[in-house]
Amino acid sequence: MQPQAMWSPENLRNPYPFYAALRESAPVHVLAAFGGTHAITRYDDIAPILKNPALFSSQRIAPGLHLPKEVGEQARRFFRAQNNLIASDPPQHTRLRTLVSKAFTPRRVAEMEPRIRAITRQLLESMLAHEEFDLMAELAVPLPVIVISEMLGVEPERRQDFKRWSDHVVQTVALSQGKLDPGPILQSLEQLHAYLEETIERRRREPQDDLISALVEAAEGFLEVEDLISFTRLLLVAGNETTTNLLGNALVSLLRAPSELARLQATPTLVPSAIEETLRYEGPVQSLMRMTTQDTQIAGHPIPEGTRLFLVLAAANRDPRRFKEPERFDITREDQGQLAFGHGVHFCLGAPLARLEARVALEELLPRVRQLAFASGQEHDIDWGESFLLRGPRRLRLRA
Ligand code: HEM
């Protein structure tokens, strides 16, 4: 498999035939022109890799990002292996995860439901005032940003700034492909850093009932301000575009399978299982990276120490050895164990929040739109963006 093939417009539109070809031809593919990265696509190979951080490291992979020099420094600060949850290995990871999960609890998330519903209703009211609308711009993009900024305790008058910074933090990763002007992104990273530093200091002096105060309290004596800033930025990178994509992907999948959409509208209690099926069938995070810490084997293939692994979750989630009729979008599917939120110690910390936002959004949207459809020309012309790591429509013009 060559990287050009991964990036080809055809694969970005529909990567699944390509994933299937990889998965069915061999368990391991060496990407010669991609620094010798090995692609792994089968469920039964990926799940145990994610369960074994001692052998398959997250920490070792982080410094390999190729970014423009100035942004590189900011990004390296962010990815500093020592203090970044997602880019650390046990025992450091265990310590960090314990601290942040004390603040980011399922209870705190569940308490957000009425507020998430109110925000969703407000967004829907304005979106559905028009017969035709872009679901991404009007609902899927703003919802997660508003929710996380309210949870963190960002003042309403700073939300616009926060949204811009958050978009730019996410784009840091795209910079490595050399397609964006680093100037505005660097400026946003600096402004966000200054804002968070000041807010953390303020909450330390005067705690409020918000996530930043809870983090400051949980981390007192263990983490420095820089570590808290790094974690807050991680929430933005890890939580916003992914949840946006989950909503977009759910709508695309439902509209492409009209009988499933009709079934869901008739039986709204199926919403949680429709969300699980979207995660399996059209996952927002298509692949993860790891690096081997010693010589090993995967499916009998020798893999040397220091090999980068490209774990294609989206291929594993359609592995016919694991899922019955994997190419069918079935909102009543009973097969469990999709890998869209990862697996093992790094399992997505924000999964309860993402599931809650997606559930509320579908519960509120579907009864209001009995005749939901793609706008003319949209079904076959979805812009899926340029990333092979994250998948979701950039725009989604619908009519109701
Ligand atoms: C980790 C996916 C939403 C915060 C992960 C991982 C995946 C993932 C695959 C594992 C990364 C790895 O093993 O290297 C998703 C998807 C989402 C979503 C598909 C939406 C549908 C969120 C949200 C938040 C969040 C809403 C928080 C606001 C995190 C954090 C980690 C993480 C902090 C790192 C956990 C650790 O390293 O221990 N996510 N995520 N995610 N996610 Fe999510």
From TrEMBL:
Keyword GTP-binding in the entry? The reply is no
Protein's name according to its UniProt entry:
Cytochrome P450 hydroxylase
* Origin organism lineage: Bacteria, Pseudomonadati, Myxococcota, Myxococcia, Myxococcales
GO molecular-function term, one example from the UniProt record = iron ion binding
Similarity annotation: Belongs to the cytochrome P450 family.
- Gene3D superfamilies recorded: Cytochrome P450 (1.10.630.10)
Q: Any keyword ATP-binding?
A: no
User: Looking at the record's lineage, which domain of life comes first?
Assistant: Bacteria
Keywords from the named record = Heme, Iron, Metal-binding, Monooxygenase, Oxidoreductase
